Every structure is written in C-alpha cells, then in structure tokens.
Amino acid sequence: MSEPGGDSLTAIFARLIAATGPISVAHFMAESNARYYGTRDPLGTAGDFVTAPEISQMFGELIGLWLADMWIRAGRDEPVHYVELGPGRGTLARDSLLAAKRFGLTPRVHFVETSAALKARQLELHPTAQWHHDLSTLPALGPLLIVANEFLDALPVRQLVRTGEGWRERMVGHDGQRFVFVAGSQPMDAALPDEFREAPEGAIVETSPAAAATIHEVAGRLAAQGGAALFIDYGSGQAQLGSTLQAVRAHRKLDPFAAPGEADLTAHVDFAALARIAQSRGVRWLGTVPQGHFLRGLGIEARAENLAAFAPEHAAAILSARDRLIGEGQMGALFKVMGLAAERWPEAAGF
Ligand code: SAH
Predict the structure, then answer these.
(1) Distance, CA 298 to ligand 1 centroid (Å)?
(2) Annotated domain spans of the chain
(3) What's the pLDDT tens digit per position in 180-203?
(4) Which of 69, 146, 179, 189 could lock onto 229 through a cystine, CB 3.0 to 4.6 A?
C-alpha cells in the first residue's frame, strides 16, 4: 500500500512515521481531511457522499424558517449575522436564506471554511459572503445565527486506549507494509473523561477536542452577542466506548487507513459532551433530537405535500426526498439536531 516516494498522503505519513515515530489518530485524521476537502468537492451522487441539503431544498428552507422565527421573537436585533460552518456547496445557505428573506430576515453572510475547492463553489452562489478560517474573526457586534450540518463529524478525534500500564493515546504506526494502530508511550490518564475510568483493558475512548473547542467558542459568542445555533450530525446523545472512526469514498465504507486524503474520515459526534460545554458557558441547550423529529416539528410533511401539489411531475421525487430526510431507517433517526440559544432568547420550535 505504501509507495516509497511520491506525495500521496500515504507516502508522506509512512515517511514521517519512519523518521519520527507513530502519529496520533487526531493528527492522521486532521491531515487526511485537510487534504481531502482541500482538493475536491466530495458532495453529490457523482462524488463520495450526499448530505441533507443536497437531497432537498426543504431541509434548508425549514432551517431558514427556524432562524427567522427565533430572530423575530427575540426582537429583530440588527445587525444580525448568518454564520455557517463548513457550508459545502453553499446549498443549505441558499435555501435557508431564501426562506428567511420571506420573513424579513436578511442577515450578513459569513462562512467558516478551510477548503479552497469548496470556497470556489460557495462563491458561485454567495458572491457577497465573507469567509473565515475559524470563528475568531466573526463580527463581535450583533446576534449570530449559526448553522453547521455535517461539520463536527469531520473534525479530528483523539482516541485513548486502555493498556496494561494505564491509558495511552491511540497512535498510528507503520510496519513497513501498512498502517497499524499502536499505543503511545505517554500516560494519558489525566485526559480521560471520568465516566470511563473503569473501562477494561483494550477499551477505546474517543473525544473530539476540536469539536469541544468549536462549541466552547460558539457558546461564548451566543452568550455575549445573542443568537442561536443548530448543529446537525450523526452521533448519539450518550457518550459510548469504542472507535467510530470511519472512511467513505464513492458512497462506500472503506478502511480508514486505505486511502488517507482520498476518502472522507468522520467520527460520531458526542452531543452529550457538547451540550455540557455549551451550558457551562451560560448558554441554553434547547435539546438534542433526531432529525426526523425536528423536521416534522417544523412542518416538513405539509411542505412536501405543497411542493408536490405545485409540481405534480416531481411529486414522487419530493416525497422520496422527504422520506430520506425523516425516515427511521434513513437519516431521520441516526442524525441528531442540537439547538443552542442565548439565555434571553425565546423558546424554540422543533425540540
Ligand atoms: N455542510 C455541507 C458540507 C458538509 S462536508 C453539507 O451539508 O452539504 C464538511 C464541510 O466542512 C466542508 O465544507 C469542509 O470543507 C468543511 N470543513 C471540514 N473541516 C473543516 C475545518 N477544520 N474548518 C472549516 N471547515 C471545515
């Protein structure tokens, strides 16, 4: 699998590991996804995976209505900013901003995006948006309406493994042929979440310092400036033992070590941990609910019927898109929506 030379990430990692020793799972995942997203648009049926906004305009529209509803009932503060983290092709922003506009919400648009390839796509739909590499440069004045769909799952996870000598960081080594998991040499007991202290030898605990830092910053901004946020991703409400690291290419799962930089690496989002972080910053956690519950609560069924009646030739496609978004065996149960709002902001629909 490893080539002796070349600039494939496989070759670069193999040389790096040979020269300096194993690298962390987090390092492996961060570099892999930076290369992956930086060099392509992975979305759509011809690409590697399909996301909710690419399935139907209804997804973005309902999010736009949710934001407009919150902003109107909070008192229509201006200036107000729409902030999307990892906006992909810009499709969700297009649909949500169009829906929000019908209710008088026309926020300034900010995208947090590190991929040059995707920024070029976003620019086509949103020529007046402002781009940011991270949240630190977002405006400090005015409420923030923050949306992130399938963003947190792409951030690097750190894995800890329980060995005979205690907890160690889970690392990626190379045996001359292929990448292999190895335990790091430094004790990592101090980094272990309390609830897993008694896990048996061999157990793996996964955390996402990058996702935690994102929520910490988002919550701090909401507390200081007002606003609300929606994080949509797959994951469970409860922290669990084990690795959830997975790779997807061309709509198929593959070994995360098979093609670093050429496949999407993701991990489940630990929403319980993120809700605790938000609350510790003085922000209201509105709940973490299955995507199907959220979209039904916002009226996706009525919206689908309306669209289908309006365009009967597309009725079958519209209803099938609705089912993909809310169906139990489809995205409706696996995907979760976590809502956050500033303390003085109103109660939210959909939770
Ligand atoms: N939200 C879009 C795209 C999801 S793919 C949709 O639902 O279709 C993940 C997105 O996050 C991509 O836009 C990718 O370039 C971006 N991304 C991944 N890691 C990032 C990081 N560390 N900082 C900013 N953006 C990142």
Answers:
(1) 25
(2) 157-221+231-288
(3) 999 999 999 998 988 899 999 999
(4) 146
Query: How does residue 5 score in pLDDT terms, banded at 50, 70 and 90?
Result: low
Determine contact, residues 243/204, Cβ cutoff 8 Å: yes
- Which two tokens mark 185? 């040499």
Q: Residue 84 CA: which ligand 1 atom is closest? A: 1
Hey, what's the torsion of the CAs at 216, 221, 227, 233, to 10 degrees?
A: -30
List, for residues 317-350, the tens digit of each pLDDT value: 999 999 999 999 999 999 999 999 999 999 999 9
Nearest ligand 1 atom to alpha carbon 52: 7
CA dist., res. 124 & res. 126, Å (int): 6
Q: How far apart are the first and last CA of the chain?
A: 47
H or E segment to which residue 145 belongs: strand 144-149
327 vs 325: CA distance, rounded Å: 6
CA of 246 to the centre of ligand 1 (A): 16
pTM of the entire predicted model: 0.96
Q: List, in sequence order, every residue forming a beta bridge with 81; answer none if it has no partner.
A: 108, 144
